[in-house]
């Protein structure tokens, strides 16, 4: 079992491959890993979820991704963090997109998921 505590991955890409969850072990293999940085996440959310389940004690997660709409769903992230990453303290998510590529769907997610869910709650619940 690896004793790695910190891992910085330049690019994580699944090349469209879908993992067979029946063949994967239910026993996490990277239990000592505390910090994970992914410079360019290019896989599906489902495959990332399978990957992260192998790192149950993760405390710091930093992800950058560009134009990967599959990663931009607040409810999926919230569920993943609650269930698979109970020790997570810091979640730094950077989503990049060229302004010309922003469509109504992404704008709606930004406004609806972030503004209404977090900013609005904290701006008005504190008073």
Walk across the major sheet and give the strand order: 1-3-5-6
Structural class: alpha/beta
Stretches where pLDDT is under 50 for at least 5 consecutive residues are: 114-127
Q: Please tally the β strands and state the result.
A: 6
Characterization of this structure:
This protein is an alpha/beta fold and 127 residues long. The chain has three helices and six strands, in the order ββββαβαβα. The radius of gyration is 16 Å and the shape is globular.
Topology, pairings included?
Layout: E1 6-9, E2 12-13, E3 35-38, E4 41-42, H1 45-52, E5 60-66, H2 74-84, E6 90-96, H3 104-125
Give a brief rundown of this model.
The chain has 127 residues and is an alpha/beta fold. The protein has helices at 45-52, 74-84, 104-125, and strands at residues 6-9, 12-13, 35-38, 41-42, 60-66, 90-96.
Can you give keywords for this protein?
two-stranded parallel ribbon; four-stranded parallel β-sheet; 32% helix; alpha/beta; 127 residues; globular; 3 helices
